[in-house]
Design brief:
mainly alpha; 10 helices
Amino acid sequence: GLLAVPLRSNSILMSRVRDAEYNDLMSRIRSSELRELMFIHLKMDLHSDPVEWVGSDEPTQSAAVAAGETPLEKETVYHINRRVQRLLAGNRTDLDAWNDAEAYALMLSAYRMTQHQLDPSATTLPMPKSKPGEPPIDPKWDFLEVDDLQKAANEDTMFMRILKVGSKTPLKVWYLYKPLQVLGLIIAAIAIGALCYFAWKYWDSTLLTVKDVGIIVITFVIATIFGKLVMKIVWFRQTLMKILFGIGMSLFGFLVARLHLYVFNPLYLRLGKMQHLTEAKEAKADSP
């Protein structure tokens, strides 16, 4: 495929970069260039079940059972709900606006993973120390507010809906805000109605003549013969796409950007504020 192959190639490239970085760090540890090292990542303790080949009739064992765990365990070993952790692992990497729900959930996950992995007795790093007989010091970080929300991850809450759309880049707020969903349905209905109207009105109109078909065929043949040569010489396709993209952004792009920055982005951030999430949870708990 024209799109699937480059995307998969890029994924393989990023995987190789991660492997190279990991091997580089491990070599630094072995050479004593680094004294201490600890790895955490968003897929810690998230098992991937095996994929059967087509036509397989052999029973497969889930990865959780193979690891000696029950598949019904809801929390990871670092006490984050597995559904929440999977959503965080699949979250977007674009540097766009992140609301409290997303940012705090990521901070809490990393905090719990580090808390689980880091052995205070095996490090020379300065660690907060508690008095003998007292529990370890747990600072009152703001992101700890989402701990109760992530524990109730099996409920259909605004917190979970925000994490579910976190893998998307455009139109995230449209998946969360019902008035925008209704507006989207209205716009789609109007567009479909307009298309049906024009199709009915110009039903007998001719779109292509023999001349048009001939021009298309000749253009296709020329492009097939000389297309690769043109691509090698002037990178015509990339240049043309950049020109068209620049024209589109100059004429219409700033309008879309302004609309997003001043209308939809503030709404998305407001829906993810901790005050809004806690109020929604309390209102749901008080409802009969």
